[in-house]
Recover the amino acids of this structure.
């Protein structure tokens, strides 16, 4: 591909027009995705509202929906970019609401594994599909080559912003 090796950072130079446009578009997309009117399925919404859960609980649920297996609380923490203590608190609240199941790892009893319960998995999967649908449609509109370049560019951007902050 056409990716240049790491470029030395320039000091105090104004960002080029393309970088400014990318920043603006990225912010607009992030805001639109966050403010979208996608609603959770009724049974899922009822369970969440009954337990006083809010939007901050969506990240662990959607992250678990991507997986076909349980994740440890530490793995979940790293994937959602929150501290272990915060993630553990969210998992506890989700567990009390019946939206996740916790179990002890049989191979390492110090680890707590988290998974979606079978009863809610279809509703949560539907919510995940709604959440990623705009991204899927955007990728479908691109030619295979453009899609490859778009994803390559996004990977390079992810590399440039560095690793997520330590949890």
């Amino acid at each position: 591909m056409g990716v240049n090796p790491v470029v030395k950072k320039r000091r105090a130079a104004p960002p080029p027009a393309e970088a400014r446009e990318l920043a603006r578009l990225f912010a607009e997309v992030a805001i639109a995705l966050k403010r979208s009117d996608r609603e959770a399925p009724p049974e899922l919404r009822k369970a969440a509202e009954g337990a006083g859960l809010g939007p901050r609980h969506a990240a662990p649920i959607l992250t678990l929906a991507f997986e076909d297996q349980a994740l440890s609380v530490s793995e979940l923490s790293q994937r959602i970019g929150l501290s272990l203590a915060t993630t553990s608190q969210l998992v506890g609240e989700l567990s009390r609401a019946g939206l996740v199941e916790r179990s002890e790892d049989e191979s390492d009893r110090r680890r707590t594994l988290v998974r979606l319960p079978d009863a809610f998995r279809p509703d949560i999967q539907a919510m995940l599909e709604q959440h990623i649908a705009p991204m899927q449609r955007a990728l479908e509109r691109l030619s295979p080559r453009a899609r490859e370049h778009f994803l390559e560019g996004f990977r390079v951007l992810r590399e440039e912003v560095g690793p997520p902050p330590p949890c």
Notes: The chain has seven helices and three strands. Residues 46-160 form a domain with the Arc Repressor Mutant, subunit A fold (CATH 1.10.10.10). Strands lie at 71-72, 101-105, 108-115.
